[in-house]
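Narrative of activities, Objective 1.

The group set out to show that a structural description can be obtained from nothing but a protein's sequence at a throughput compatible with the screening campaign. Below is one input-output pair from the validation batch, recorded exactly as produced.
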Amino acid sequence: MHRTGSRIGRKLRTLGIQLLAGGLLLGGLAATASAQNFELKVSTFLPPNHTFQKALVAWGQELSQKSGGRLKLRIYPAAQLGPPNRQFDLARTGIADIAVGLHGLTPGRYPLTDLVTMPYAAPSSGTLCAITGKRLTELAPKYLAKEHAGLHILWMAVTSPLMFISKAPINSLADFKGLKVRYAGANWKAIIDKLGAVGLPVPPTETQDALAKGIVDAATFPYEGAASFDLGTVAKYSLEPGVASATFAVVMNEAKYKSLPADLRKIIDETTGPARAEWFGKMWDDAEIAGKKSLEAKGLKPINMRPAEFAKVKKALSPLVEDAIAQVDKRGLPGKEFYAAYTK
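Output recorded for this entry:
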């Protein structure tokens, strides 16, 4: 009986040692996983001198600092990983972990988001990027997640209202007649059509060459974008105020986001969202001022239409907003509700 008890005791001790070793092994594996380093590939189609590049670099430094060097970004600007109209898909398919996409480059795929690009659409508090980007990011979880399926929205960005940057002055509604205008997005195509101009979907990176060769006579850009793509060397006029904005989103592959350790996801969450959109928007607002100065230094001359002519432009464009909202509502989407929430 004593020998039997001894054998049982030895087996129990052996089992305890095995369980302890297993626990230590699992604990070690968990610790190894949590201590693992991650480098996320970030794709943009924008040039290295663009404000988005500067913002991504600054955000990457913050991620690295907060994670003790475990989470870093490797940024690929200037469409190195894929063309401008594929940026969202690069993140969705995992070719990139994070991407900066322009919704207007994929017409019809983001109908609710596109309502933000309607003529003179903005929150009642103003058109500054810090205001518009923050507001759109606040609304994204409720309204925009479905049309960004497969993507985790980090923050949204709304440009300053785009102007017509042109080779010849535009002083009246009649001056738009037959004008060849570079645009991005179905809403801008509708705007250009309503004004009697001819829209051409030229990629941002090819706009300078298109202006230089006379393929287009004008292009729709904010000052910051026009300066980044060096349009001041070929275009000499801008029409103020801007008509409509363009929307961007910084998105992450949903599966990649969920695969990160909880503490790293927490860092990403804490450094993105509405606060990050406002932070970036302020950078963009500063860049808009600097971009205008840069273009003016190259000879660009801003033009303000006479009030009577400007009233004609607004009247010509006013039906577009109601029509766009109605079309979105017909698709079973909350177009009217979303637009009211954004412009509140």
